[in-house]
Amino acid sequence: xxxxxxxxxxxxxxxxxxxxxxxxxxxxxxxxxxxxxxxxxxxxxxxxxxxxxxxxxxxxxxxxxxxxxxxxxxxxxxxxxxxxxxxxxxxxxxxxxxxxxxxxxxxxxxxxxxxxxxxxxxxxxxxxxxxxxxxxxxxxxxxxxxxxxxxxxxxxxxxxxxxxxxxxxxxxxxxxxxxxxxxxxxxxxxxxxxxxxxxxxxxxxxxxxxxxxxxxxxxxxxxxxxxxxxxxxxxxxxxxxxxxxxxxxxxxxxxxxxxxxxxxxxxxxxxxxxxxxxxxxxxxxxxxxxxxxxxxxxxxxxxxxxxxxxxxxxxxxxxxxxxxxxxxxxxxxxxxxxxxxxxxxxxxxxxxxxxxxxxxxxxxxxxxxxxxxxxxxxxxxxxxxxxxxxxxxxxxxxxxxxxxxxxxxxxxxxxxxxxxxxxxxxxxxxxxxxxxxxxxxxxxx
Length: 445
What we know:
Aldehyde Oxidoreductase, domain 3, 3 domains
């Protein structure tokens, strides 16, 4: 099976940015109130905070003010990071910052510290004993806030490096490939052709909203099709943009029964739409982000072919992994082995064109980029599993070489032709000839 009903990743949080700070704020308010009810009856607790209530109030005010100041600085750094990522790399990378766990953790610590200090300050009264536990906890939270700020700055400095961004996108995309694509050798029990679906008899299900397909809930689709003794063929993929009133699926019922509202709503509900794409079930979006970085690097304002070539290296690894996976439409069965849901999928040509298309055109006058793309295709050629994949690699190599600008000199032209020949050699199994040279040009940038 190609796509399964899994959600979430280990590296990122799907919750909106405000959820974690809000929860920690509530916990901090409750904790501040509860600790304020504990009277320091023992001499040990009193010795931990020998000062009076005036000093306790000052401490809590300082902690609250410091938490707000640090939160403001953290927010400012985040806004600058988002601006840099959008302008210099790709606007589609912004969701990586929004879903970053470190950012949410830091904001949660600062929110909790501020709310705890205010909650504790409410219980400071000169006529009552000093709330020792509140003061000690507030002091610890104040130091934790300072540590969080230092950690956040270190994290952002690392995160804003383009190499770090590309590595994060690569790793998440690789996880999506491993989670949602079966190995090439795992041949499916059923194929769409085995179901013998007559397209003229299928009942279309139209979208009742617009947006990008973010998630396909396969389990819900199979369960709904089983309940209604039907077969559902989804006609959209994760990452596709759907417009209200356009088809998202077709359904075949036994005896040609009409679709009832419950079945139609279940199909629509399993096709989750949102206003932006995510990589979780959409490996193509990861390749899109990497190519965006490469294309942006080739813009006249940045002019950084080395970054573009590095992005191509990450795409090469992902394409090699895709070559070892079973792509194309998949049939999902119920517990009795009956085919219930047909999910479409992108083929190998789509991924090859996605990695090469735009960058080859934008980098037509830069031999470094064209040679990087041809090296990528040579590496993929070694991993091809069938003649269909090899044909796509050969076609892409011809297209990349065909983008060569006529303004390049003879030396650059010869180098690009040599890299194109190495792709052909790799496709024909002449590995030594494809990878060996005297100066390391076929691997270096």
